């Protein structure tokens, strides 16, 4: 026994002692540890770590927004131990914490930035908390039904008068705390007001009695408003804009309004835009499509050093884009983010007599690439961008020049090889979408799984070359131009889907395999790729893209059968960093084999499955939840009965809620008439980030909020 002990001591002496590292290296290592673990656990291990864990570099900024294991007691202890050292506190999306948790924030006397979006905060609690935070300059809160600005104390209003940055999410018609913030420089507004109450009553866009105070915009530099679908949201945002139309702030440099559907221009908004054209120079711009379409607005607006443009869903032609926005390439090297999603004519010289499916003008795209050579985020989805047969002018070849791209969204039909389509036109049977459940015999595509063989076989592919040139791409979306999710916002589930574009018919396994070249890929979305026959390319992505954290797959291959299930299960066994998985596919079988493969994803936190006529095995789901301890969100909208769904949901909550405070479970029939009522109770963080399908590339300016 003495020899064994001696041998162990010698081995320990020859090993590396972590405590021998310099303080700088140790601080860098500790910066990757959640603050709650540092303060409540790590610092109790030894004297040196006790000192380092309280270093200002680690306690200055505390991020709790995705610390799903934090609870009320941990927050209380954290604030007690280091509250006075915290200058920035982010609790965004901590929906599971009771409202009384907010009371402990009062210990953070030196707070400068505070994010409470998604937290339960009443008017009285907000007043009490803000009364003690005299140094606060940046605030993010939700305004829920029952909010009453008259309950805010004079000390609270004094704090708000010094706030220069405000992010406000509105669930009820209200100005919130905006009228109290007399020094505002940045205002972000998220309108999530429903048109009907839970009882079915129509809501009004008029503000509550006593909320007629006028917002103070004289120092405003950034105005951003994002509207969820609904008439009431449009009515309320007009009240916020009315003040701007009277007097446009001289220092305004970013004006952004994201509004789905039709948001008509009024006399007040026209006056606002005319005033902006005369008095300000912008760096970021996004407007509702109705405000741009058919107007000469862009010709009159002046830009300084623009970093973000969004013309999503506008009928802006490529000719206007080049003449009025790019302006011959002047001063556009500053542009880092561009959203042209749904802008169907943006790569054509004019839109008057053009069909959406006509070939693009490659010279317009080339001008865009040359002028905006520093683009990091580009969205060209939801449109038919068909390249001509001209050699060297394919969309993929031109985009390969954008070496700084970090995120990219493209329609499926834009990545197909023109030559391949000419040589092998799709058969008539392939052009017609097959009805659900119909058995179609298909020859299995023989595609090499070895990467070297793939490279040799596809070296001539323009998409393969594009993926090879964008080595540092972190986010990629390839979405069918006619794809629409089966579960849209605030509406019943869509029962019929449009057929894919004819040009997209040849896009399948080989193109998916090309994506595996993206070594640093973190987020991948693939939707409506009709020629997926085996899904073999998914395996390559699982093997090569080891940083993948978010995966969203929708309507791949034939819709009557999940042809890629075997490949998906093989892929999942290699996705050790995967945190979010969203699957949308008719007839998906969430059974024992699938969940066994998914259990290899040890870091998985959120799962969402949307499947018309899909089935699930309750025992397999329960076993998966027991094995994957990090999972805190399980959303499944399938074809099962309401009884089966409710029983499974109750079993999961009953078994795992105690150990997982943030657990959010929704299991519900996809085609049930009460689906929209169920959706409204989902925390906004999950709803916005994973449950609802949408393109997220260049959705808003980079670094809009900290």
UniProtKB/TrEMBL annotation:
It holds the Pfam family LRR_FBXL18. GO terms for cellular component: SCF ubiquitin ligase complex. CDD domains: F-box_FBXL18. GO terms for biological process: SCF-dependent proteasomal ubiquitin-dependent protein catabolic process. Residues 75-663 form the F-box/LRR-repeat protein 18 LRR domain. This is FXL18 protein. The gene is Fbxl18. InterPro entries: F-box-like_dom_sf (IPR036047), F-box_dom (IPR001810), FBXL18_F-box (IPR047948), FBXL18_LRR (IPR045627), LRR_dom_sf (IPR032675). Residues 23-64 form the F-box domain. Signal peptide: none annotated.
């Amino acid at each position: 026994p003495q020899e064994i002990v001696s041998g162990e001591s010698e081995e320990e002496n020859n090993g590396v002692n972590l405590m021998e590292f310099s303080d700088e290296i140790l601080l860098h290592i500790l910066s990757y540890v959640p603050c709650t673990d540092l303060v409540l656990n790590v610092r109790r291990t030894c004297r040196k770590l006790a000192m380092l864990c309280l270093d200002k570099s680690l306690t200055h900024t505390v991020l709790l927004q995705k610390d799903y294991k934090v609870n009320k007691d941990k927050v209380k202890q954290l604030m007690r131990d280091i509250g006075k050292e915290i200058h920035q506190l982010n609790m965004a999306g901590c929906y599971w914490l009771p409202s009384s948790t907010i009371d402990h924030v009062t210990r953070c006397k030196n707070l400068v930035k505070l994010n409470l979006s998604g937290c339960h905060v009443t008017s009285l609690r907000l007043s009490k908390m803000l009364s003690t935070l005299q140094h606060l300059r940046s605030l993010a809160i939700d305004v829920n039904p029952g909010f009453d600005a008259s309950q805010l104390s004079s000390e609270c209003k004094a704090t708000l008068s010094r706030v220069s940055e405000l992010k406000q999410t509105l669930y009820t018609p209200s100005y919130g705390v905006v009228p109290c913030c007399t020094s505002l420089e940045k205002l972000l507004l998220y309108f999530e007001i429903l048109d009907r109450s839970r009882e079915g009553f129509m809501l009004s866009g008029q503000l509550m009695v006593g909320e007629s105070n006028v917002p103070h915009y004289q120092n405003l530099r950034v105005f951003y408003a994002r509207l969820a679908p609904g008439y009431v949201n449009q009515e309320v945002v007009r009240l916020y804009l009315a003040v701007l139309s009277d007097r446009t702030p001289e220092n305004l440099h970013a004006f952004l309004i994201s509004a789905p559907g039709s948001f008509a221009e009024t006399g007040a908004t026209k006056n606002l835009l005319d005033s902006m054209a005369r008095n300000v120079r912008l760096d970021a711009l996004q407007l509702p499509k109705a405000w741009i379409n058919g107007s000469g607005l862009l010709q009159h607006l002046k830009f300084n050093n623009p970093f973000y443009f969004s013309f999503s869903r506008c009928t802006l032609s490529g000719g206007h884009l080049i003449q009025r926005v790019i302006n011959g390439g002047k001063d556009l090297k500053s542009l880092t983010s561009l959203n042209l999603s749904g802008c169907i004519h943006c790569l054509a010289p004019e839109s008057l007599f053009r069909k959406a499916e006509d070939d693009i003008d490659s010279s317009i795209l080339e001008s865009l690439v040359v002028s905006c050579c520093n683009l990091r985020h580009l969205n060209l989805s939801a449109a038919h961008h068909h390249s001509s047969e001209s050699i060297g002018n394919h969309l993929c070849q031109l985009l390969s020049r954008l070496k700084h791209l970090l995120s990219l969204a493209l329609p499926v039909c834009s990545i197909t090889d023109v030559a391949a389509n000419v040589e092998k036109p799709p058969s008539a049977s392939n052009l017609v979408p097959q009805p659900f459940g119909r058995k179609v015999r298909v020859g299995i595509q023989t595609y090499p799984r070895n990467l070297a063989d793939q490279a040799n076989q596809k070296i001539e592919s323009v998409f393969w070359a594009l993926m090879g040139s964008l080595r540092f791409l972190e986010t990629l979306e390839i979405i069918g131009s006619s794809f629409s999710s089966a579960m849209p916002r605030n509406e019943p589930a869509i029962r019929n889907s449009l057929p894919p574009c004819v040009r997209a018919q040849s896009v399948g396994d080989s193109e998916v395999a090309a994506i595996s070249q993206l070594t640093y890929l973190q987020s991948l979305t693939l939707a409506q790729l009709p020629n997926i026959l085996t899904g073999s390319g998914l395996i390559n992505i699982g093997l090569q893209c080891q940083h993948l954290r978010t995966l969203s797959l929708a309507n791949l291959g034939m819709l009557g059968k999940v042809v890629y299930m075997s490949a998906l299960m093989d892929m999942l066994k290699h996705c050790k960093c995967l945190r979010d998985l969203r699957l949308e596919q008719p007839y998906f079988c969430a059974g024992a084999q699938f969940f066994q493969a998914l259990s290899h994803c040890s870091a998985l936190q959120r799962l969402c499955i949307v499947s018309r006529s899909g089935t699930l095995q309750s025992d397999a789901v329960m076993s998966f939840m027991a094995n994957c301890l990090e999972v805190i969100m399980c959303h499944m909208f399938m074809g099962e009965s309401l009884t089966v769904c409710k029983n499974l949901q109750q079993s999961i909550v009953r078994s795992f809620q105690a150990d997982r405070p943030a657990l959010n479970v929704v299991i519900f029939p996809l085609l049930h008439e009460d689906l929209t009522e169920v959706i409204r109770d989902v925390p906004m963080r999950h709803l916005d980030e994973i449950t609802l399908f949408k393109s997220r590339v260049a959705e808003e300016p980079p670094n809009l909020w900290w």
